[in-house]
Task: inverse folding
């Protein structure tokens, strides 16, 4: 009899207590080595692998020449006092020049997704500052990347970045000494 009463009380208790069930995914991204960790949303971080090389070569040649002559005959009649005269002149100019330049830059900079465009392309931007002996070297990178170009290790080669802007700025005592003085800048502007 006690068993029946205990079973009824226990059943009544479980029926009166509300049951809540939390729905959770069986495939949580935490700790899952097979989860896709590539950047795709605003605030996500990825690394741009910069490997740029440029070579410029320019050759110019310019030649210009001009010859002229003027002849004036002797005067007649009341202008007989004028004697025959002539003048001639020539001018020539020739210039040659060439310039060649090569620049290479390689490195890595970590950037943040700042905007996701309607076509799922991502605008990325990042700044890296390096301080050494009160001198700052600042590297700023901005560009647009496709989600398909993000590699499994969350990197993108710089050759796959559209509208890429890579800027180097510096400030501090050493950088200030490398600039022209104000008088030199004024003379260069005037002359």
Result:
């Amino acid at each position: 009899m006690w068993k029946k009463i205990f079973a009824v009380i226990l059943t009544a208790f479980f029926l009166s207590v509300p049951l809540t069930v939390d729905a959770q995914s069986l495939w949580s991204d935490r700790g899952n080595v097979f989860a896709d960790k590539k950047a795709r949303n605003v605030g996500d971080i990825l690394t741009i692998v910069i490997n740029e090389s440029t070579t410029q070569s320019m050759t110019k040649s310019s030649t210009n020449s001009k010859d002229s002559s003027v002849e004036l005959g002797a005067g007649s009649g009341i202008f007989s006092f004028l004697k025959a005269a002539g003048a001639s002149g020539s001018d020539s100019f020739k210039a040659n020049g060439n310039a060649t330049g090569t620049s290479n830059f390689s490195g890595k900079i970590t950037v943040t997704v700042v905007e996701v465009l309607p076509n799922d392309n991502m605008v990325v931007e990042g700044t890296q500052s390096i301080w050494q002996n009160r001198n700052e070297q600042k590297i700023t990178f901005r560009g647009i990347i496709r989600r398909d170009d993000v590699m499994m290790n969350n990197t993108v080669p710089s050759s796959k970045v559209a509208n890429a802007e890579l800027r180097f700025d510096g400030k501090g005592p050493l950088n200030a000494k490398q600039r022209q003085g104000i008088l030199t800048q004024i003379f260069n502007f005037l002359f």
Remarks:
- The helical segments are 2-16, 173-177, 182-190.
- The mean pLDDT is 76.
- Strands lie at 45-72, 85-116, 122-132, 135-145, 155-157, 162-171.
